[in-house]
Structure prediction request, 252 residues.
Amino acid sequence: MKLIHDMKGGLLTVRLEGELDHHCAMDITARICELIDALLPPRVRLDCSKMPFTDSSGIAVVMRSARAAQGIDSRFTVAGLCAQPMKVLRAAGVDRLVEIEEEVHI
Amino acid sequence: MRNELNRVVMRFPSKSINEGLARSGAAAFASQLDPTLDELGDIRTAVSEAVTNAIVHGYKDEIGEVIMTMKLFEGDEIEIVISDKGCGIPDIDQARQPLYTTGGAERSGMGFTIMESFMDSLKIKSAEGKGTTVTMRKRLNTRRYR
Ligand SMILES: Nc1ncnc2c1ncn2[C@@H]1O[C@H](COP(=O)(O)OP(=O)(O)OP(=O)(O)O)[C@@H](O)[C@H]1O
Ligand SMILES: [Mg+2]
Prediction:
């Protein structure tokens, strides 16, 4: 899985590209939390439009990233979810705990 | 029991790099039934959950062998059996509860709940110190009988 980030006008966009599973989850969580701690963005968007798959490992990635953003009073959203990742996050009730955006605005 | 039409077995060491391989293997096996994208997604997810459990819980502090057997039955039904000879589960009813986990901050305790809801049936057999076998079934029909 690839992680690409972009910081513009107070918005940190983190784009995940590829399949998210236990194999890469720890590394991805650590990198997102490091970016949030280093850049202190007022706004964080996790762009999942290039992520066709996640398993339950992605639940912890989203929740821990959201918590890191919350820790610096930053607004955290997940954007561009494909059908399969959406189904997994919904099954875990993540959509009730984290703000999900319908579309990615680039 | 319905007639078995096809069977493929994958055996691999419990290394996380093989999680993606197991998903792809299961998707390739299921593709003989011309599944929908949603059905493929469900199967890939359930396989990822069971294989990851074998790797992170079953063989927590060691590398062992994971065996995945995929069977096709008459009536467009697929069965996937994933087993490990790892530490086993002391209390299966408790392990199946949503949010129950022994895995710490990287796990959320949703694996079995997801397997159960994404497949038609989920059976778990386990013995402490001997290992765990997870059997999942799903009938693929949405495309064929549309
Ligand atoms: N193959 C296995 N061997 C030993 N213990 C297992 C195995 N599979 C599951 N377990 C136990 O059952 C618990 C629940 O599993 P489940 O997959 O539902 O959640 P999880 O793996 O902890 O978290 P998640 O799957 O959401 O990342 C695990 O925390 C573990 O204690
Ligand atoms: Mg699990």
